Amino acid sequence: MATNRSESGADVFAIRAERAFDGETMLRDGVTLLIQGSRIKGVEPGSAPVPDGCRVTEFRDATILPGLIDMHVHLVGDSEPGSLDRVAGYTDEELDAVIAKGLRGQLAAGVTTVRDLGDRSWSAVEWRDRLASSNDATYPTIVASGPPITTRRGHCWFMNGEAEGPDELRAAVRDRVERRVDVVKIMTSGGGTTPTTDVLACQYSLDDVRLVVDEAHAAGLPVTAHAHALEAVRQVVAAGVDGIEHCTCLTESGVDIPDDLIEELAVRRVVVCPTLGRAPDAPLTPRLLAMMETSGRTIDSRKADAAKMHRGGVTMVSGLDAGINDAKPHGLLYESIGGLVTGGVSVIDALASATSLAADCCGLAQSKGRLREGLDADVLVVHGDVAADVSSLRNVSAVFVRGREAAGVAP
């Protein structure tokens, strides 16, 4: 419950709570967060005086955090069964409505930045540009890859990112550079939402992936790779990618995450987004059930696998794969964060995976992911002590986007 302590009389306002997570550590002796315009002006003790005329809003039994960053979303997905099957048939108006709804769902859950890793025909890139040019603070910030690069009829081919052979792959990267994407996404194995593909097989050769990485790096762009198969994971690490999505390490006999691979991921500083989390009451799809039966793994063992990589020094970030179906709707990032904790990662490290570490991975360390003077005032307030109970992330009290309180997100 928030209470206003004084009338607004200046362009600085403050929010107070008993505790805060600043993106790296917990602050437990009371916190006063000063906000001026779109930026954080200061992070002070709870008892600190505020400027004359400053409006103070106090949140009781609450935790202040940086706005969360969902590192793997598909804004073109409507979070319903068969979501991606409908993407190619949307009109521009329908697609805009789907994206707007997804962004609102993310914001309501305290997510103030999303990394879109696969849209159709540059739709998320266009939304990113529109929001940036209008300085619109009613939606989360978008980091966008455009359509993922994939093989003919490969995983997510319907997003219009098909490219094969050196000339097409170079042209694909060049196209993304010209459209100023934030990251290049490549599908290096089959995927669960494209039934005609093989999750155990590589879609490209090592030379192909290395070409994409080299071309992107030459243009100053990072590369993240979708990879389920162990063979594909090893391939993309050898090719020099900056990140891996899923990183399931599937083989014909099950999941295999060798210690030498974990060491290589850590040494090369490859960022892994394991895409943990799902709606607890959502049924498992037949394809997912088949994959689990083949691999001998469960939802909980996936969490333990992620924690194993974390213990080995691999940088982990949190992303849900939001929007692809009803098991992974927009606005459920807290399940990804909680999944790391269930697997054995500390709450502090799990929170960092969706704040400071995520911002670093996106190249946003100078604006997002931390409660620090001069950074964007993207702020989440939740009821309860998140360090003691990570599920408190579900209890959203308020969300601020670049200093503006988002309407209608708190109960």
Attribute tags:
alpha/beta; six-stranded mixed β-sheet; Urease, subunit C, domain 1; 11 helices; TIM Barrel; 411 residues; globular; disordered N terminus; five-stranded mixed β-sheet; 2 domains
Order of helices and strands: EEEEEEEEEHEHEHEHEHEEHEHHHHHEEE
Task: Give the end-to-end Cα distance, rounded to a whole number of Å.
Answer: 10 Å
- The CATH superfamily of the largest domain is identified as Metal-dependent hydrolases
- Enumerate how many helices there are, as a single number: 11
Could you explain the architecture of this structure?
The chain has helices at 92-108, 123-134, 165-178, 206-218, 230-239, 259-267, 286-295, 299-311, 333-343, 347-352, 356-361, and strands spanning 2-4, 12-17, 19-21, 26-27, 31-36, 39-45, 55-59, 62-66, 68-73, 111-116, 141-144, 184-187, 223-229, 243-251, 254-255, 271-273, 379-383, 396-401, 404-405. The chain has a six-stranded mixed sheet, with no helix packed on it. Mean pLDDT is 94; it is low at 1-9. α3 (165-178) runs parallel beside α4 (206-218), α4 (206-218) packs across α5 and α8 crosses α9 (333-343). Helices cover 29% and strands 22% of the residues. With 411 residues, it is an alpha/beta fold. It contains eleven helices and 19 strands.
Question: Which secondary structure elements does this structure contain, and how are they paired or packed?
Answer:
Elements: E1 2-4, E2 12-17, E3 19-21, E4 26-27, E5 31-36, E6 39-45, E7 55-59, E8 62-66, E9 68-73, H1 92-108, E10 111-116, H2 123-134, E11 141-144, H3 165-178, E12 184-187, H4 206-218, E13 223-229, H5 230-239, E14 243-251, E15 254-255, H6 259-267, E16 271-273, H7 286-295, H8 299-311, H9 333-343, H10 347-352, H11 356-361, E17 379-383, E18 396-401, E19 404-405
Parallel strand pairs: 2-7, 3-8, 9-10, 10-11, 12-13, 13-14, 14-16
Antiparallel strand pairs: 1-7, 2-5, 3-4, 5-6, 8-17, 14-15, 17-18, 18-19
Helix pairs in contact: 3-4, 4-5, 8-9
